[in-house]
Amino acid sequence: MKILVATRATQGAKDNDFYWTNDGELVFLGFTCDRDLRNPEMGCGCGRSFSGVETGRATTTATVIESEMTREQFESTVEAKFVLDGWDAEFAGDAVDQILWVADRLPVGAIVERRLDEFSVRELVS
Hints:
about 25% strand; globular; alpha+beta
């Protein structure tokens, strides 16, 4: 299945890029604060980033890859992170659904950025 993972590729293309995750780390769409909902360019950055499952940190770039991981494995990994961080494990399924929905609509090799619920391809690496 196609999934999104953190990437350093194209970092710095925009002045407000940031990368605090590990290369290849699974990502999901984290929660978005009210400030970013009003203007993701002027908030904390949560409305334009992906959250790393391993580190719990964020990045403004992710890439679409083909993975042998199953949906169940992905959901279990996200659920474990949510529990570790004190979040309700019930949200894991929704978080996985959201990121898989995004990945499914993009080609493998796409380097992706986010602005709330809009996703753009910065570059396509073949």
